[in-house]
Amino acid sequence: MRPTSTYRVQVRPDFPLKATAELADYLADLGVSHLYSAPLLTATPGSEHGYDVVDHSQVSPELGGPDGLRALSASLKNAGLGLVVDIVPNHAGVAVAKANPTWWDVLKNGEQSAYAKFYDIDWSRGRLLIPVLADEPDALDQLTVDGDELVYYDKRYPIADGTGGGSAREVHDRQHYELVNWTRGDSEVNYRRFFAIVDLAALRVEDPEVFDATHAEILRWVREGIVDGIRVDHPDGLRDPGAYFERLRAAAPDSWLVVEKILEPGEQLPRWPVAGTTGYDAMAEVGGVFVDGNTEAFFDTLERHLTGREISWQDLVHETKHDVASRMLAAELGRLSRLVPEIEAAPQGLAELAACFPVYRSYLPAGSRHLAQARSEAGRRRPQLISVLDQLTNRLRHPDDELAIRFQQYTGAVMAKGVEDTAFYRWTRFVARNEVGNDPAHFSVIPDYFHDCAQTRQQDWPDTMTSLSTHDTKRGEDVRARLAVLSEVPGDWTEVVRRWVRAAPLPDPSLAHLIWQVAVGAWPISKERLLAYAVKAARESGASTTWQHPDESFENALRAMIDKIYDDPALHREVSDFAASITPPGWSNSLGQKLVQLAMPGVPDVYQGTELWDWSLVDPDNRRPVDFATRRELLTRLDDGWLPPVDDTGAAKLLVVSRTLRLLRQRPELFTSYRPVFAEGRVGEHVLAFDRGGVVVVVTRLPVGLSRHGGWHDTTLSLDGHSWTEVFTNASYGGNRLAVADLLQTYPVALLVKE
Fold it and tell me: Boundaries of each Glycosyl hydrolase family 13 catalytic domain copy (predicted)?
């Protein structure tokens, strides 16, 4: 059955299926229709996320195994709820070889393994390279033999039958795999990876046997009515996503299917047999409409002043994508280049095309225009490669060409690593917009564009998921909502941040600007959390330190900066005071964007814990435990008639979330169309409103500007003469014209239902 809404739970060893089952009554009271879980199949031992599946045949014992899933299903059904599960078709976990029986068999038997076709391995390169050895010339001397296994510290590998005897190095040299220096992973590994992670080996689900083996357990849950919906992780890594979804739909004809497809602004989802995406497109639209687009030039000027350099987003993205394409993904680039041995400069041409590719990937024959765009831009940037680019694009436009097929898989990884995991940490003029699914060059979203997108979603993808926070977002939704306030106070922000960067200097000024924004966006935040975020951000950026080669002196300077924020009383007080000044308008933005996301076309997801204020940052920060006891208690008080103030408890957000979700579940017929509603009056631009076909949503945008105007004054909304009940306050309104000042006197948002 189609969900009316979902609630994402990070099921993990420290919050297993038993604990998840105990949420069923709370989630039913909250108003959701379906629990949406993290992956449940057996993952690498100790995995905190489940995206590194090692055994597709069973529910993870660490999560509670089959009994735990049955208990969860029963608990959900008793509460009238359904279940949506996350699945991972693109890759499997191989960090602990023995935990993955198919990978273990491939290591033991090589190309003759019954499971060799499960993995995308280039056997023409010889033995399967496993980049795990320390960067030392005698690393192989640390190998030992233990029975029928080779042991390297805590890692164990199989010994093929009949290949034992002699020293450990001699045994190693007879195997179908070769343990090599870990630094060779990016350049020489001969199995396709998930992005650049050597511990995640790509699966070949395009093979029907592999599809069946990796999906049998999940599809059994579907057949038995345990699962109503499936969220598909990272389809862009698949050889043929369209064919995959056709096969999945045939196997699960009645399931609600959504895909983790990241669309660039204006890009359309292919017409796959799915309900839609996981909602990053909606996130970009909703977040942008609460940003004041008139101040973009202020932030451009501030960024130039702070960093001393001027670079466009487009040029920065090209720089970071090209680096990823040619260095981090050098092994994949080499495999592509070997498919065109007649073109000597193929590596340079392919890397340039990938760096210029405007979207994650094409789905040939659809999307060939993206290749044409990449060819045009690559030729502009590298005119000396024009003949090479022409030869390559002649091959890359043919959907059956192996080069074209693999290039489509390659460009998605280049985009993800080059943009989200690198450029987002270097382009820091206004980080509220540095979010998955958004182009940060799009500083804001005007209401007319938002309405156009919403109407298109209602028409084309009415059952798609919408979201504001996920486990992959760079900052939690309420952090972004507070940071949006900076767009309304650019002068104040310029004044304080210029002073702060002098008080607590950092050699990387772009990173410093990122950290100061994050600090005020998530304040109050513990020193430990902010430091952990800052170190991750610095290493992701790669400008001053990296994961592979941490720069100790820079990271010491980074720690000194964070220490200064907390240890200097004057600085700490000033940060606290500034954060406090933008917090109330941030609350207004939070309530506004949450109501819009819940009530706009689509199936809204609530990420765990975000029914209250959530000041989470990038993972693992956003996977922290959730205090469900407090949420239960507050929900009970709301149901007893309490109208909470908009304050730091977050109860006002819980009121908005619970009342809207309940209405979606109880009265879905009120949410079947979309029509913009425009306010009249001199501050009408501060209203965002729309009619869903019986429900009218009204929210405040740009609250600081509204306060400067002295409030709503004569602003009105034209309704159709019916009587209306406002859901959050239970107040009644009638007449053709409704004064916004009356409607929004208690909360900065309203949800009107026809009586």
Answer: 3-639
CB 355 within 8 A of CB 379: no
Judged on CB neighbours under 10 Å (0-12, 13-18, 19+), 155 is middle
Residue 202 CA to its chain's centroid (Å): 20
Question: What confidence tier does 367 reach under pLDDT thresholds 50, 70, 90?
Answer: confident
Question: The tokens 């024009």 sit on which residue?
Answer: 386
Cis peptide before 676 (omega within 30 of 0): no
Tell me the two tokens of residue 361: 């990937």
Beta carbons of 268 and 242 less than 8 angstroms apart: no
Q: Who's near 525: CB < 8 A, 6+ residues apart?
A: 519, 615
Residue 144, strand partner residues: 151
Give the tokens for residue 9.
């739970």
Residues 358 and 331: their CA atoms lie apart, in Å, by: 22
Ranges of H-type helices in 545-650: 552-567, 569-599, 628-639
CA 506, 512, 516, 522 dihedral sign is negative
User: How confident is the model over 667-698, as pLDDT tens digits?
Assistant: 999 999 999 999 999 999 999 999 999 999 99
Grade residue 755 by pLDDT with cuts at 50, 70 and 90: confident
Query: Using CA atoms, how far apart are residues 245 and 259, in angstroms rounded to an integer?
Result: 9
Please give the model's pTM, rounded to 2 decimal places.
Answer: 0.97
- Separation of alpha carbons 237 and 124, rounded Å: 22
**Cβ count near 654 (within 10 Å):** 21
Residue pair 490/299 in contact by the 8 Å Cβ criterion:
yes
- Strands 675-677 and 687-691 come out as antiparallel
Phi-psi region of 249 (alpha: psi -120 to 50; beta: other; left: phi over 0): alpha
d(C-alpha 45, C-alpha 30), whole Å: 33
Judge if the upstream peptide bond of residue 644 is cis by omega within 30 degrees of 0.
no
Q: Indicate the length of the chain as a whole number.
A: 755
Instruction: Classify residue 68 as left (phi > 0), alpha (psi -120 to 50) or beta.
Output: alpha
3-state secondary structure of 277: strand
pLDDT digits (tens, 9 = 90+) for 258-293: 999 999 988 999 999 999 999 999 999 999 999 999
Cβ neighbours for 456, distance < 8 A, ≥ 6 positions apart: none
**CA-wise closest residue to 690 among 585, 599, 614, 628:** 599
Q: Which amino acid is at 390?
A: D
CA separation for the pair 169, 466 (Å, rounded): 54
CA angle 280, 315, 338 (to 5 degrees): 85
Query: Among 545, 480, 98, 12, which residue's Cα sits nearest to residue 280?
Result: 480
Task: Select from 702, 664, 663 the least CA-distant residue to 684.
Answer: 702
What does R_g of the chain's alpha carbons equal in angstroms?
27
Q: What is the DSSP letter of 678?
A: -
Residue whose C-alpha is closest to residue 583's, from 500, 647, 513: 647
232 SS3 class: strand
Q: At what angle do helices 509-522 and 490-503 cross, to 10 degrees?
A: 120
For 608-625, give the DSSP string: TTTTS----BSTTGGGS-
d(CA 40, CA 91): 15
Question: What does the DSSP 8-state code read for residue 270?
Answer: P
